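Severity: low
Component: inverse-folding endpoint
Summary: output formatting inconsistent between runs
Steps to reproduce: submit the following structure tokens with default settings.
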């Protein structure tokens, strides 16, 4: 059972990102403020849900949330500032866009940089513990997937409609065969160059 809040006395925004481990495309982040009495039987960590379930949840979260926002940092910026900094920047941008100011940020994971004067709490596996973080994980993942489907049409040879630019064998082999695109993260190890000594 996901918990509805960390601190009942505060307006909380759950924050999560999607796409950190991908070889191409942006990293997306979302921030969501849910009502304290919010319930949704389907809501869970986005990685535990099917694509169909995430797509069903997205409009429900957007309709029911007190406030929500989604932001991204593109691959060129990721290469300049590194993926951890980019993920945190995307979360900051999402919080910036919220229509209501939160008093506490619940961050999925163990790293964050303070945002203005708002307190934050880093929670490992927070997306499987708190509703607002799970909701943010669903929004970040669905918006990023939507973007990857769009750029897949430009470069269908990489299979981004299926792998979303994660480092699958298919994606790595496609990079070896076709080279890289303007969407690839040049600061990442894009090909598996490990030598097999046999």
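Observed output (run 2 of 3):
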């Amino acid at each position: 059972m996901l918990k509805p809040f960390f601190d009942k006395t505060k307006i909380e925004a759950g924050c999560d990102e999607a796409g950190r481990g991908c070889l191409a495309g942006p990293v997306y982040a979302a921030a969501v403020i849910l009502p304290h009495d919010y319930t949704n039987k389907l809501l869970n960590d986005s990685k535990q849900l099917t694509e169909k379930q995430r797509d069903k949840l997205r409009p429900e979260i957007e309709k029911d949330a007190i406030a929500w926002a989604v932001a991204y940092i593109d691959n060129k910026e990721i290469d300049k500032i590194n993926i951890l900094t980019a993920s945190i920047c995307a979360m900051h941008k999402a919080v910036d866009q919220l229509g209501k100011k939160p008093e506490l940020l619940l961050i999925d994971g163990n790293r964050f940089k303070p945002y203005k004067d708002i307190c934050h709490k880093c929670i490992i596996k927070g997306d499987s513990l708190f509703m607002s973080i799970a909701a943010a994980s669903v929004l970040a993942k669905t918006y990023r997937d939507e973007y990857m489907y769009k750029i897949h049409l430009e470069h269908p040879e990489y299979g981004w409609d299926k792998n979303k630019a994660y480092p699958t064998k298919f994606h790595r082999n496609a990079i070896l065969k076709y080279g890289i695109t303007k969407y690839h993260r040049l600061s990442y190890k894009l090909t598996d160059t490990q030598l097999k000594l046999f």
